[in-house]
Amino acid sequence: EPEVTQTPSHQVTQMGQEVILRCVPISNHLYFYWYRQILGQKVEFLVSFYNNEISEKSEIFDDQFSVERPDGSNFTLKIRSTKLEDSAMYFCASLRRDMNTEAFFGQGTRLTVV
Amino acid sequence: RKEVEQDPGPFNVPEGATVAFNCTYSNSASQSFFWYRQDCRKEPKLLMSVYSSGNEDGRFTAQLNRASQYISLLIRDSKLSDSATYLCVVNGAAGNKLTFGGGTRVLVKP
Lengths: 114, 110
Description:
The complex is a heterodimer.
Chain A: E1 5-7, E2 10-13, E3 19-24, E4 31-37, E5 43-50, E6 53-57, E7 65-68, E8 75-79, E9 88-95, E10 103-105, E11 109-113
Parallel strand pairs in A: 2-11
Antiparallel strand pairs in A: 1-3, 3-8, 4-5, 4-9, 5-6, 7-8, 9-10, 9-11
Chain B: E1 4-6, E2 11-14, E3 19-25, E4 32-38, E5 45-50, E6 55-57, E7 60-65, E8 70-75, E9 84-91, E10 98-100, E11 104-109
């Protein structure tokens, strides 16, 4: 069964460093998302990506964040100058067609900023 | 009012019993609805989509009430393995994206 894969599963970084979280969506999917979940809190939308551009982003997704789909398969989230409050689980998701189809989530990257 | 709201629980359920809980959404233009299951520190996994006519998948039944703007999930004959957090997910609650409720925690006990 096709699945969304994310690497690394756990990333520890020092405050102020840059991190890149990687995702390989399901191959025939068209819509891609990043969500995050701070421990004990709800899943929060960060950004959606369609047709090689950002289609929507949340207030959380400020200039510190960027996304790329550099080679048609990987979908990356870059966090510049990480802060302690960026510590969270980051989930990548992909949808086959449109918002009326279900989203499939990767297993997540646990980011710990120290 | 929150875009998607759920009772956080926990719902303590004896094994074999039935449990049901709701999720309310604020935007009447919301288009599609899903229940996801999330185990501790794991990714959300699709449990079922929710259709206007209601739908059933084994022991799980989902209903949509557009007039009152809520969806429901009912679990019959609860198993210990049903212990998890159930996430209500709505498309169109706030823009063209999936919006998550805070989750309802269910604990099934022997």
